[in-house]
């Protein structure tokens, strides 16, 4: 069951980036803020200088798919903005690395349910 919607507006991103708590992994940086709703809100951003459009979109697809895989193990009621680290090598972007990063970050943020630990 899908319990995540996407952040779309600039002010939504700014709100989470300014008031959210920062967590860092090897490839992904996450800003997580409680939103007092019954769903999670997800935003993904990759800087233009990181790579060309095709590769950026490929990384976004990998991030979305990895998130979808761990989505059932995340508590609801959070706004999450995921950023690709600029210093991370683009060649290391694969599903397994990103998913491991998610589990590490969400575990640090204490928003993972006990089922996935």
Explain the overall architecture.
By secondary structure, this protein is α/β, with parallel strands linked by helices. The protein has one domain: 2-Layer Sandwich (Ribosomal Protein S5, domain 2). Helices cover 36% and strands 23% of the residues. The chain is built from three helices and five strands; from the N terminus they run E-H-E-E-E-H-E-H. Strands 1-4-5-3-2 form a five-stranded mixed beta sheet, sandwiched between helices. The two termini are 20 Å apart.
Which key features would you list for this structure?
117 residues; alpha/beta; Ribosomal Protein S5, domain 2; 5-stranded mixed beta sheet
Might you state the CATH topology name? Ribosomal Protein S5, domain 2
Amino-to-carboxy terminus distance: 20 Å
Taken in chain order, the helices and strands follow as EHEEEHEH
Contiguous uncertain segments of 5+ residues: none
What number of structural domains do the residues give? 1
Strand % is 15-25%
Radius of gyration from the alpha-carbon trace, in angstroms: 13 Å
Structure in a nutshell:
By secondary structure, the protein is α/β, with parallel strands linked by helices. About 35% of the residues lie in helices and about 25% in strands.
Question: Secondary-structure map with pairings?
Answer:
Blueprint: E1 4-6, H1 10-19, E2 21-24, E3 28-34, E4 40-45, H2 53-70, E5 78-84, H3 95-108
Parallel strand pairs: 1-4, 4-5
Antiparallel strand pairs: 2-3, 3-5
Helix pairs in contact: 2-3
């Amino acid at each position: 069951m899908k319990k995540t919607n996407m952040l779309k507006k600039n002010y939504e991103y700014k709100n989470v980036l300014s008031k959210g708590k920062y967590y860092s992994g090897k490839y992904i940086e996450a800003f997580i803020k409680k939103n007092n709703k019954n769903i999670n809100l997800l935003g993904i951003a990759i800087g233009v200088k990181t790579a060309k459009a095709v590769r950026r979109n490929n990384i976004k697809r990998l991030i979305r798919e990895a998130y979808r895989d761990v989505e059932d193990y995340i508590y609801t009621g959070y706004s999450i903005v995921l950023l690709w680290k600029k210093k991370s090598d683009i060649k290391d972007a694969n599903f397994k690395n990103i998913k491991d990063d998610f589990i590490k970050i969400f575990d640090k943020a204490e928003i993972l349910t006990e089922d996935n630990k």
